[in-house]
Amino acid sequence: VIASLIESSEKENIEDAIKEATGKIKGSYSLVILTKDEVFGIRDPHGFRPLVLGNLDGSYVIASETCALDIIDAKFIREIDPGEIIVLDKDGMRSQMMLPVDRISMCVFELIYFARPDSYIHNKNMFEVRHRLGQELAKEFPADADIVIPVPDSGTPAAIGYSAESKIPYAKGFIKNRYIGRTFIQPKQETREISVKLKLNPLREIIQGKKLVVVDDSIVRGTTSKKIVKMLYNTGAKEIHMRITCPPLLYPCYYGVDMATRKEFIANHKTLEDIREFLKVDSLKYLTMG
């Protein structure tokens, strides 16, 4: 859509065409546009998604996350601001606030799930943010358990934090297949269920006979969590206490994440106790907004 708007513009140069195109659209985007002579970095005026500027041997680099800069030994300069356009050409870099910024609304799932744990957002490391969420979970909702295990990988930092705060030993309860993608955005329920089995294999020697605290980042439909719980019980878990770092999800995202329809969100039509019974866990607690 954006490329088509730029291509159909009657503006005399590409920069003006880009500004015109982005002025017509509403939604979530962080763009890098390459032309023969220029590179453009553009972030939507709400700042839904991250976009960063770096420097490598005197040249500028634009990336979606800071971890990409680390890979090439580039130095992080700053985050590109919501509504800002960065232009890189033979003369260097120039910046302009391209669009009016009424309200900054960064997607909270970047902090909870999407961003890599080795990235920084708002000068905060994502591993440390998620570790802190786990610590807060342990303070709010302690559990009588033998070990704390994560649903890998997004639940790992929070599980380590929960373990550190609660003094319950941390353990690796699953081996993860690295070649399976994110299950909650799979289009069909059958595909999601098969993906869970292919993605995670529980470790019987760690789990059998144990009371578990299982830490995950979120529950969307609940079907993936239910499969994970069943796998753990089938492997011999004695008790399962689910702890979730994201408050209950009630509404879908309309800004670039195909999560689910509103009626599919389990927290939209079930109480906390209903969800606990659906998952068949001994206790279920979400981190509160406070």
How many DSSP helices? Answer: 11
CATH topology of the largest domain: Rossmann fold
The N- to C-terminal Cα distance equals: 39 Å
Q: Mind summarizing the main beta sheet?
A: 4 strands, antiparallel
Question: Can you identify the CATH class of the largest domain?
Answer: Alpha Beta
Question: Which percent range fits the helix content?
Answer: 25-40%
The appropriate CATH architecture of the largest domain is 3-Layer(aba) Sandwich
Structural class: alpha+beta
How many domain modules?
Answer: 2
- Order of strands, main sheet, comes to 1-2-6-7
Low-confidence segments, given as residue ranges, are none
Oligomer: single chain
Whole-number mean pLDDT: 92
| Portion in beta strands | 15-25%
Report the strand count: 15
What sequence of helices (H) and strands (E) makes up the elements?
A: HHEEEEHEEEHEEHEHEHEHEHEHHE
The gist of it:
By secondary structure, the protein is of the alpha+beta class. It contains eleven helices and 15 strands.
Description:
The structure is a single chain. This protein is α+β, with helices and mostly antiparallel strands. It folds into 2 domains: 2-106, Aminohydrolase, N-terminal nucleophile (Ntn) domain (Glutamine Phosphoribosylpyrophosphate, subunit 1, domain 1, 4-Layer Sandwich); 109-286, Rossmann fold, CATH 3.40.50.2020. It is built from 11 helices and 15 strands. The strands form 5 sheets. A 4-stranded antiparallel sheet has the order 1-2-6-7, with no helix packed on it. It has a 4-stranded parallel sheet with strand order 10-13-14-15, with helices on both faces. Strands 4-3-5 form a 3-stranded antiparallel sheet. Strand 1 and strand 2 form a beta hairpin. Helix 5 (126-140) packs across helix 6 and helix 7 packs parallel to helix 9. The two termini are 39 Å apart.
